[in-house]
Amino acid sequence: MTGVDHAQTGIDRREIALRGFNNSVTGETYVLTDYRLSAAPGMAINAYGLMPIASLDMDRIEVVRGPGAALYGSGVDQGLMHFVTKSPFSYPGTSLSVGGGERSLLDVEMRHAGTLGSRFGYKIVGEYASGDDWALEADNPVDATLIAREGGTGRDPDFWKYGITGTLEYRPTSGIRIVANGGYLSQKMSLLTGIGAAQTDNFAYTFAQLRVHAGNLFAQVYMNQNDSGDSFYYGPTSLTDQLLRITDQTVLWNSQAQYTFSFLEGRQNLLVGTDFKRTSPRTAGTLHGRNEAIDQIDELGVFLQSATLATDQLDVTAAIRADYNNVDEKVRFSPRAGLVFKITPTHTFRVAANRAFGAPGLNPNFLDMNVSTLFTAASFGVSLQGRGAHEGFTFANFRDQQTVTFLLPDIGDLDNQNNPSFFGTQVALDQIPVAPVYENFASRLGNVLTTGAALPPAFANLSATDRDRFAALLNQLSPFIGGNAAGALGVPDINGDGFLPASDPTDIKPLEQSVTNTLEFGYKGLIGNRIVVATDIYFTQKRNFVGPLLLESPYVLLPGISATINGQITPFVEDFAQADPILAAVLQNMGVTAEGAAALIADLIETGFDGFDGYAASPVAIVQPDQTILSEEAANTTIGGLLTYRNFGNVTLWGVDLALEYLYSDRLRLFGNTSFVSDDFFDNTELEEEDTNLAVALNAPTFKLSMGFDYQLPRGLSFRMAGRYISEFPVRSGPFTGIVDNYAVLDAGIGYDFGRQISGLRLDVTAQNLLTVVDGKTTTRHREFVGAPQIGRLVMARLVFTF
Length: 803
Known about the structure:
Blueprint: E1 4-10, E2 13-18, E3 30-33, E4 36-37, E5 58-65, H1 69-72, E6 79-85, E7 93-101, E8 105-116, E9 120-132, H2 141-149, E10 158-170, E11 176-192, E12 197-214, E13 217-227, E14 232-233, E15 244-245, E16 251-263, E17 268-280, E18 297-309, E19 314-325, E20 330-344, E21 347-358, H3 362-366, E22 368-377, E23 380-387, H4 396-401, E24 403-406, E25 426-428, E26 432-433, H5 434-451, H6 464-477, E27 484-485, E28 488-492, E29 499-501, E30 514-527, E31 531-546, E32 550-551, E33 555-557, H7 561-579, H8 581-590, H9 594-607, E34 621-622, E35 638-644, E36 647-663, E37 668-677, E38 681-682, E39 696-697, E40 703-712, E41 717-726, E42 729-733, E43 736-740, E44 743-753, E45 761-774, E46 777-779, E47 794-802
Parallel strand pairs: 3-6, 23-35
Antiparallel strand pairs: 1-2, 3-4, 5-6, 7-8, 7-47, 8-9, 9-10, 10-11, 11-12, 12-13, 12-14, 13-16, 14-15, 16-17, 17-18, 18-19, 19-20, 20-21, 21-30, 22-23, 24-25, 24-34, 26-27, 28-29, 28-33, 30-31, 31-36, 32-35, 33-34, 36-37, 37-40, 38-39, 40-41, 41-44, 42-43, 44-45, 45-46, 45-47
Helix pairs in contact: 5-6, 7-8, 7-9
């Protein structure tokens, strides 16, 4: 469909967004299954492979693009998808599907449905799938970086899932339906999250639902729960072998009721309704830490919609909704107005205006977990703590005093007041103590020289004895190092290449709901009974994005440390060389003077060597907020760094969707569609923000095109072929940043209905990515989202028997 951004990230993983703003794992699209919210409640993400929806039981998929908060509530600012399954009354019988193909793929589904008399219906649906997912490849430079960042072992490609659902339906009269259903699905796969790559293992999803359709009344209550099983994050604490286990047994309860009043012989309808949603996280402290007792979210909404048939050609719709959220404790209003004008019975024009609010989810509000650890030496380091911003953070102490927390260990003792260590102490940003910085450098370089590992070029040809003597020189110089140096603030480059200069940190206000305003014009028509045309033009303004998890406590670097060190050590190196013939011989073997040796040491301390980035790009201190970052249980050899979320930005964009369908004959259908969006990346200037680190990517292309055909031959044979082109687009989604190259893929399928020979039997063979072109070059693999593995061809055969 036009306006639907689809990124396949694995055999059973897809990220789907409506009109952009996709993510490594997205929850922006509001997804329903039989009127029930389908997202995993703990993570508030649309893990489609985790939703117990078997294709055998699928009746239809309804898609509404654009804001829908006026009826559905907070968070429906991009649109919604509704999976509607088959009723046992309309689709009785038994179906069995068995499929298999490349990558050891196996897919089995079973559906049995029936009725007991005219009032009771039932169905049971089961599914099982397994296979070898696409994996990161060590010989690919992009993948190699991801593998190293995630612990060095690579993601587990093993994939499986199994699930079962059941439904009971009671129809006491022709106008009343009472439906009870429930289901369970367990899964293993690797996937992307806003924190990093994760491995689900026995991750379970359970739901139960009771709904009533009685004339103009609709009411329901349902429960969704997930159980994380043995799931974990990959490489959450770099340089350690520990896995960050996930405990998540969050429960979501939802109750809804709505009633339609009809007047003027059906020309005027009023829909009134209310709903209440409670999300109760249960993470055993692993995800929400100290927030575990305060992380429940309650949302209450009431809404009113008026639908008026003003004339036989004009429909007028107006709606208003009020929502209360217990986190921000404010009432938000979401209005909507629309006109549909039927120019003729086959040509329709519409215009609609919407406002929608998006409430920050569980993690942006209540996250409290160690995301990664930067080790400065041995067990000393910075623990980067992911924190939710439901109360915000301030940096008043830094603004007033310009002090930072020193993070390099030295020869002092953390527990000895007579010989204190600088580690963890407050120092002035413009007076960073030089002595402990030099001590750490001397220890690093001395270890390299004595072990002979990763030698800098200047020492490559020295004997082990000469290297030991130079290491001794480094230690001899330590007592003569003193004074201070001015530090500079920096944050890691989001592309993983060093540090970028940073301005002073700004306070982070308690998170507010994002706002989306959209104005849309649409046309749909049938031309000559053969051509169907549909087009939409929309203008969208978004404010107060909830950004990804970002480092908000900048590091302190020493870009000018070489000059300070050089000036201090040059006279001592000269004196030592004159007094020590062995040292003088070492310098002669290196081909440097005493002055040159001092310059070499000073240069290495600033620019680094293999395995050490130098203190122009390696932190010596960190800015911390006024609030405590780490828990009381944290070791005294660890300093906290703040990773959190913030609201920011004000952007305007527009887009055009166009779809064409040509019914050439009863057997041949040709189709094509295209979408264009005005921009795919918004820097801080476009967002009206001063902080250059604040930017938003659409995470979707500005241009995409697809076209294909369906052809039905006599005697049950059918063909299908479709191609799509996706233009290059930038991605900025949590830790996953980069560019997705433009690509084009061709899919094909052939099917045969054995109805003439065996009633109810059908065979379909499909080939995904049968032909792939990336940047104009034919290839076998392509990547559809940053952080995901490259995917390739997948041929599968599926046999379905219905009886």
